[in-house]
Design brief:
Chain B: This is Acetyl-CoA synthetase. Chain B: It comes from Desulforapulum autotrophicum (strain ATCC 43914 / DSM 3382 / VKM B-1955 / HRM2). Chain B: Its EC number is 6.2.1.3. The structure holds two protein chains of two kinds. Chain A is α/β, with parallel strands linked by helices. Helix content of chain A is 41%, strand content 15%. Chain A is built from 18 helices and 19 strands. Chain A has helices spanning 12-15, 32-43, 87-97, 115-130, 171-174, 177-181, 201-210, 227-237, 261-265, 268-279, 287-299, 315-327, 337-343, 371-378, 393-402, 407-432, 448-455, 464-486; strands spanning 19-23, 48-52, 58-59, 62-63, 77-80, 101-104, 133-135, 142-144, 149-151, 163-167, 187-192, 216-221, 243-247, 282-284, 308-312, 357-358, 384-388, 436-439, 460-461. In chain A, the strands form four sheets. Chain A has a seven-stranded mixed beta sheet with strand order 9-8-11-10-12-13-14, sandwiched between helices. In chain A, helix 8 (227-237) links the parallel strand 12 and strand 13. In chain A, helix 3 (87-97) packs parallel to helix 4, helix 11 crosses helix 18 and helix 12 packs parallel to helix 18. Chain A starts with 11 loop residues before the first helix and ends with a helix. By secondary structure, chain B is of the alpha+beta class. Chain B has two domains: 4-14 and 108-222, D-amino Acid Aminotransferase, Chain A, domain 1 (2-Layer Sandwich), CATH 3.30.470.20; 33-104, ATP-grasp fold, A domain (Dna Ligase, domain 1, 2-Layer Sandwich), CATH 3.30.1490. Helices cover 34% and strands 28% of the residues of chain B. In chain B, strands 5, 6, 7, 8, 9 and 10 form a six-stranded antiparallel beta sheet that branches. In chain B, strands 1-4-2-3 form a four-stranded antiparallel beta sheet, with helices on one face. In chain B, helix 3 (40-50) crosses helix 4. The chains are: A alpha/beta, B alpha+beta.
Chain lengths: 487, 225
């Protein structure tokens, strides 16, 4: 179950070590362990690091120790990136010293079968003997951005974020940071869980459930080993924070044909659909959706219903957004008479005040970011706003220059306006407690408006379809949460 | 349960339809009124008492796919039809049977299937699906892991693609949702109480125009496979 506080989690020291005994780094630059230690140093981890190496006396500026027993203290964590044959004896030595947590990156265990299976059971036996909790083997490691800890073999390039992830593939821990940084999001904590010989996805999920830096949990799943524990743990977490899972395939074991219809229909996929729904877990159908959903779920206040108002200044994107909303079970209500009345002074005669609200143009530029969204979200039928963003800094600059602002002033002035606009939307979001989701065909690096919005907590996705699906995920979360709390 | 124990001792792979329904009934799942008879005369007398129309089916533990074996006769409306049906089933059967089931005929356009299967990771899983053509073509079925509460059972029905058919549908009453949920929870209870049962299949469970729900055919498969 979820620990009462994060410090009480049995795996807390794995993600929050104050000191690390590091096995497998050396002055050989080609060794994977050396790369991992390099990544730890690069992110600026402030804890103590004790490399253990039979020959090298100093590694990357750290004093190295010949044997585990030479260490000056009992470190919180053993990090093992050694050749397979010496892993078991190393864990044994760690256990003897009193180390109770480990990350075992080394591969060559259950996943290779044969002798590997034997080695893995020796590993779990040693862990049991000493009460060691360990992540892996055959994993990529752990990231805790709030501790500046990136113990993987690739640099972490996104910022500190609120997405806590447990993944049965190391790639989604190590290789997602460019994808996340494109939307201005990042991991809080990431666990690559490998073979799950000791710590499994349920343990990680429980930890993330209690983690104060984690607003939403992302799971990459190929199979769930502790079925009932998964369901119970997820059901305990979901009333407090959303869980999104991307599940692929599944074993053929579950696919065996039965005597009866029931068995024949119980392929892994429909069964996992049921398991997720019973667990309160939102299922994403791609890696892109997994992170989109987490992004919007972590950024938005709870949604009350499925009624969305689409605001745009251009017909096509508005229609595309309306269509995508419809396909994803969202409803576009007509504006009430009161809303229409309030809107009248602020919209040009070319505008359409149906939903989508297509403004074509606004009398005052800030109206698009302040007055109009405020009126729209105040509509009693509005549960959320899906809004199209176009403006680039350059576009505002051209307008300013046409108005007579000098070339050397227009750049700064344009940035100033953009900040004002982003602040206005962000302030509205805070005030109304209804989700505002943006979409734009411009990315962060192409538009300072998009960057400013994302940095202020307004999620902006790269297409109307992605925006609508993420809004639908908010509605799914609302429904799942209600089912679990009313049950 | 004694029925299960006896079948296990005899090494049978499954319970007969009649025995399967007795297990379901014991856990509160509504099944057809039916009597196992051993002669043509008895079949007619039973049908008269039960009221027409009736259904005749051969009944045996090893008859797991009855309609394929040509041993089911539906919608019999009088004694002559019952006699003919009885004789023709006996003629077409080449295996030993427990007897012939005389069963009330349940009519309804809406059919569900329900079942239980055991998954290596999740244990007993309960299935609900739309019956008839929907089963084969649309695979409109949903699963939950046992045990679960009534809220979850309700959610299963809601999750079906054709969930609207359980509401008021073409002049027919809303399906009895309480009973549907009870049945799903009962299947979960059977699965947890009886690890010796490996699969259960209720196919179909008919919803009549008044919304009443009845398990019309059932199969309990035994043994840990």
């Amino acid at each position: 179950m979820i620990p009462s506080s994060i410090e009480n989690s049995e795996i807390y020291p794995i993600a929050n070590p104050g000191s690390i005994a590091f096995f497998g780094a050396s002055n050989n630059l080609a060794a994977m362990g050396t790369t991992v230690l390099g990544c730890i140093c690069a992110m600026g981890y402030a804890g103590k690091i004790y490399p253990v190496h039979p020959k090298d006396r100093e590694i990357k500026g750290f004093q190295a120790f010949q044997r585990v027993s030479d260490l000056p203290e009992i470190p919180d964590l053993a990090y093992i990136v050694l050749p397979t044959p010496v892993v078991v004896e190393t864990l044994e030595a760690c256990g003897q010293l009193g180390i109770r947590h480990a990350v075992i990156v080394s591969a060559g265990f259950n996943e290779v079968g044969g002798q590997g299976k034997q080695l893995q059971s020796e590993l779990t036996a040693v862990a049991e003997k000493y009460g060691i909790r360990f992540l892996g083997p055959n994993c990529i490691g752990v990231i805790n951005t709030h501790l500046n800890l990136n113990a993987t073999f690739l640099p972490y390039e996104a910022g500190r974020g609120y997405i806590g992830m447990a993944s049965q593939s190391g790639s989604f821990i190590t290789q997602m940071s460019p994808h996340m940084s494109r939307l201005g999001m990042g991991f809080s904590t990431g666990f690559s869980i490998g073979n799950e010989a000791n710590v499994d996805i349920v343990d990680c999920m429980a930890y993330l459930g209690a983690c104060p830096n984690t607003r939403v949990i992302a799971l990459y799943i190929e199979s769930i080993r502790r079925g009932r524990a998964f369901i119970d743990t997820a059901r305990a977490i979901v009333p407090k924070k959303p869980i999104v899972a991307f599940y692929v395939g599944g074993s053929d074991e579950g696919r065996r044909a039965g005597f009866s219809h029931t068995g024949a229909l119980a392929g892994p996929d429909p069964l996992y659909n049921g398991v997720f729904r019973q667990s309160g877990v939102i299922r994403a159908s791609s890696i892109e959706e997994l992170f989109d959903f987490c992004y919007v779920l972590g950024a938005s206040p709870p949604i009350q219903g499925n009624r969305v108002i689409v605001q745009t200044h251009s017909g096509g994107p508005g229609a595309a957004a309306a269509d995508a909303c419809g396909r994803n079970g969202l409803h576009l209500p007509a504006l009430t008479a009161a809303t229409l009345e309030r809107l009248k002074p602020h919209v040009p005669h070319t505008a359409s005040v149906a939903n989508p609200v297509d403004l074509t143009f606004t009398k005052t530029p800030l109206d698009f970011f302040q007055t109009i969204p405020q009126i729209l979200t105040a509509d009693e039928n509005a549960d959320a706003l899906l809004i199209y963003f176009l403006a680039t800094s350059r576009m505002i600059q051209v307008v300013l220059e046409a108005l007579g602002v000098s070339d050397d002033m227009s750049g700064d002035k344009a940035e100033e306006i953009i900040i004002q606009q982003a602040d206005a939307i962000a302030a509205l979001g805070e005030q109304i407690k209804k989700p505002i989701v943006g979409f734009s065909f411009l990315a962060r690096k192409e538009s300072s408006l998009i960057r400013a919005l994302q940095d202020r907590g307004i999620p902006v996705l790269p297409s109307p379809e992605r925006g609508a699906r993420a809004l639908a995920a908010l509605v799914k979360y609302k429904n799942l949460r209600e089912k679990l709390t009313q049950g | 349960m004694e029925i299960i124990q006896t079948a296990l001792e005899e090494g049978l792979p499954a319970l007969s339809e009649h025995q399967s329904k007795k297990v379901l009934e014991a856990f509160g799942i509504p099944t057809t009124r039916e009597t196992l008879v051993h002669g043509c005369k008895e079949a007619v007398v039973t049908a008269e008492t039960m009221g027409y129309p009736v259904v005749l089916k051969a009944c045996a533990a090893h008859l797991m796919h009855k309609s394929e074996k040509n041993c089911v006769r539906l919608n019999l409306t009088g004694p002559d039809q019952v006699r003919d049906a009885y004789d023709s089933i006996m003629d077409s059967i080449d295996v030993e049977i427990d007897g012939i089931l005389v069963q009330e005929a349940i009519h309804g356009q809406r059919e569900l299937i329900m079942g239980m299967t055991r998954d290596p990771q999740f244990g007993a899983c309960i299935m609900l699906g739309m019956g008839g053509i929907a089963t084969e073509i649309f695979k409109d079925s949903v699963f939950r892991v046992a045990p679960f509460d009534r809220g979850e059972a309700t959610d299963m029905a809601r999750e079906l693609k054709a969930a609207a058919m359980l509401g008021r549908f073409r002049g027919q009453a809303r399906a009895d949702m309480d009973t549907i949920c009870n049945c799903l929870m009962a299947l979960a209870a059977i699965a947890l109480d009886h690890p010796e049962i490996s699969e259960i299949d209720i196919n179909p469970l008919i919803i009549d125009p008044q919304g009443k729900v009845t398990a019309v055919d059932a199969l309990v498969v035994l043994g840990n496979r």
